[in-house]
Specification:
By secondary structure, this protein is mainly alpha-helical. The termini are far apart.
Length: 295
């Protein structure tokens, strides 16, 4: 496994980290799209908040909830109104989960079509992928008419905010304003879906740099399964152990040797540390400055 990992080289690893930073820009764009009223110039801030959110979730023992709360604080200390921060956060998380669902459905459909085999069964590939496209369309239609879910999302937002009824009503009003702009919600979904695909493509890039032959479609299908298993294990910080076991079990289904699958997981862990540790240090310095100012 170590010999396989060495093939990526320092330059390859830096390229992988750069690709991942680009994915964070897509995630920041999704959150920004869910925050009407914020200018495009704030893309860097929202991308940074998304990086902090991910780093805390992956590297600190707070699991996903800690990352969500601290990521939101990154925006509130930047003087973005609290209702807008938490309202957009709920929309961003909702569209991210929907995008993951669409990505997973695509991956499962693709996996089925690729593993069915040759011959007449290949004719099922079109209907399977077409059915997946229909399900994605249904999801988009659901978001287009999501006002009926406003009360539920307001209650979810209320769990994130240690404030009273007034704060909840402000968030409810903000959510109503966001969901009234259906194009922005669809845009948030689109950016989140693009981020899921870009993340899977990044894993394919690592394997190509290692000299491991695998098609992009196979890799996207495999990564959709890995992401799904990681989501199930959301209560485990960084999905430690879960990611490695998932790669070892699912990789061979796509012709990926176990040692190459584990080397990929190792590269992703190293990437998380290379990006996450400096992010956490910068976040801590920012918090120290806020405390020094008495904020």
């Amino acid at each position: 496994m170590v010999s396989v990992a060495r093939r990526i080289g320092v330059g390859g690893f830096l390229l992988f980290c750069g690709w991942s930073l680009g994915t964070f820009v897509l995630l920041g764009a999704a959150w920004l799209a869910a925050a009407p009223g914020e200018m495009l110039g704030r893309l860097g801030l929202f991308s940074w908040a998304r990086m902090v959110r991910e780093a805390v979730s992956d590297l600190l023992p707070f699991s996903q909830l800690g990352g969500v709360v601290i990521g939101a604080r990154t925006l509130t200390v930047a003087r973005i109104p609290m209702p807008r921060v938490y309202g957009s956060l709920v929309v961003d998380m909702t569209t991210e989960m929907a995008a993951q669902l669409a990505y997973t459905l695509f991956g499962l459909a693709l996996m089925a079509s690729l593993l069915i085999g040759d011959g007449a069964a290949v004719a099922l590939r079109g209907p399977i992928l077409g059915g997946t496209a229909v399900m994605v369309t249904i999801i988009l239609a659901f978001f287009a008419g999501q006002r009926t879910a406003l009360d539920l999302t307001a209650r979810i937002a209320g769990r994130f905010v240690p404030a009273g009824r007034g704060a909840l009503e402000d968030i409810r009003a903000e959510l109503a304003g966001i969901y009234a702009r259906r194009g922005r919600v669809a845009l948030a979904f689109g950016f989140n879906l693009a981020a899921w695909v870009a993340s899977g493509a990044g894993a394919w890039l690592v394997l190509r740099l290692m000299g491991v032959p695998i098609s992009l479609l196979d890799m996207l299908s495999l990564e959709s399964l890995i992401f799904t298993l990681r989501s199930v294990a959301f209560f485990i910080p960084g999905a430690l152990g879960v990611q490695e076991a998932a790669y070892a079990l699912a990789g061979p289904l796509f012709g990926l040797p176990p040692e190459s699958a584990l080397a990929l997981s190792l590269a992703k862990r190293a990437r998380d540390l290379a990006i996450g540790v400096p992010t956490l240090l910068a976040w801590q310095l920012g918090e120290a400055r806020q405390l020094a100012r008495g904020e």
